[in-house]
Amino acid sequence: MDEILDALIVGGGMVGATTAAALAQAGMRVALVEGGEPPAAIPDDAPFDLRVSSLNLASQRLLEAIGAWDHIPEARRCPFRHIEASDESGQRHVHFGAEALELPDFGHFVENRVIRRALWQRLSELPQVRVICRAGPVAWLPGGQHGLLELDDGRLLAARLVVGADGAGSRTRALAGIATRDEDYGQRALIINVRTRLPQQDVSWQRFTASGPRAMLPLPGHHASLVWYDGDAATRAREALDDEALRQAIERDFPERLGGVEAVLGRASFPIRRRHAERYVRPRLALVGDAAHVIHPLAGQGLNLGLQDAEALSRRVTAAFRAGQDPGDRRVLAGYGRERRPQTLAMIAAMETFHRVFTGAAPLRQAGGAGLALADRLESAKRQVMRHALGL
Ligand SMILES: Cc1cc2nc3c(=O)[nH]c(=O)nc-3n(C[C@H](O)[C@H](O)[C@H](O)COP(=O)(O)OP(=O)(O)OC[C@H]3O[C@@H](n4cnc5c(N)ncnc54)[C@H](O)[C@@H]3O)c2cc1C
């Protein structure tokens, strides 16, 4: 143990790397501990990866503010200007257009690995950040002036603040004794990358069906990422189809507006679970991102929520640091927990409502469709919802 760090971030995923950059940019001495390898460079013409996220405007602005956005090559980001959601019939729908908010777009779809690589490039430009790879925490001891984190390589690190950004199975959360509330939705999401006949679309759409939503996320060029939610057995059977059989299933079961699918380029499925930490803070410790919350991905808000955590925590902690105060102070962290936990609870409640209404009994689904059609006519309410979803 050679120094006392201002902050120690565990987990170099998108949320942890963002937090590290935001704190270091304010002059704090930061270490980032990552269990895996540093992200590799991605050639501009590499095939698109399956893990793609929608970055809303608030997330984009945060990445701009910490100097990471410009490291995302234009060839690998796809702006979207329209969002549509419809019921199973496709007749009743709600449409949101960026022009109604006088915005050029709602945000961008970008591969997770491209976002992460951009963030790590930014970290390499910040001399106050020390990166430790292939290591993880085994013990945590909070103290009066600082806490001690022991790593599995035998190192002992002292820091005034530890941030757990180590994802859904967070070891940091477990070491801090923070319990979670979990729910398994009994659904899987099959992600399929396809080459489309139509050129790049600037709309992200979703159709709710009784077995779960089907969504199209546009990617640059003639590419799209499809998300097909269904029960466990049905998803695994579909995932096992050969490329041609899966292509035909998509053309049969996805809305016609997708246009023809020329080829299936890749597929993988993920279980859909909810997990929420019972608290976000402990003495000298805070949780951010999936370590704090895993939500239903149907509205593509999980990463955006995590980046809002990073923004809120770094705003409060750097304000204390700049004022010469303790950045791991109990009141600073409590303020962060009070700000963020209710926001996540509201998002969980919204996702829960969508899930239960549209996978519920027929009358409930009918009511849901009617709700979408009604919402489409309420222009000012639509603008409010959009501003909220964009994190503005
Ligand atoms: C099917 C699907 C689709 C999704 N689509 C969207 C979307 O469109 N938009 C959106 O906003 N969100 C989306 N999400 C959610 C989003 O992917 C996650 O919220 C986001 O990846 C969480 O980032 P994170 O940095 O918090 O965690 P992670 O990405 O899990 O990163 C955790 C990091 O910590 C490291 N780590 C783990 N354990 C340790 C340890 N013990 N020690 C050290 N390091 C450790 C890991 O190696 C990793 O680098 C989706 C999720 C799913 C499942």
UniProtKB/TrEMBL annotation:
Q: Please name the Pfam families in this protein's record.
A: FAD_binding_3 (PF01494)
Q: What pathway does this protein act in?
A: Cofactor biosynthesis; ubiquinone biosynthesis
- Single GO molecular function: 3-demethoxyubiquinol 3-hydroxylase activity
**What InterPro entries does the entry give?**
FAD-bd (IPR002938), FAD/NAD-bd_sf (IPR036188), Ubi_Hdrlase_CS (IPR018168), UbiH/COQ6 (IPR010971), UbiH/COQ6_monooxygenase (IPR051205)
Family in the record: Belongs to the UbiH/COQ6 family.
Q: Which PANTHER family match?
A: 3-DEMETHOXYUBIQUINOL 3-HYDROXYLASE, UBIQUINONE BIOSYNTHESIS MONOOXYGENASE COQ6, MITOCHONDRIAL
Q: What is this protein called?
A: 2-octaprenyl-3-methyl-6-methoxy-1,4-benzoquinol hydroxylase
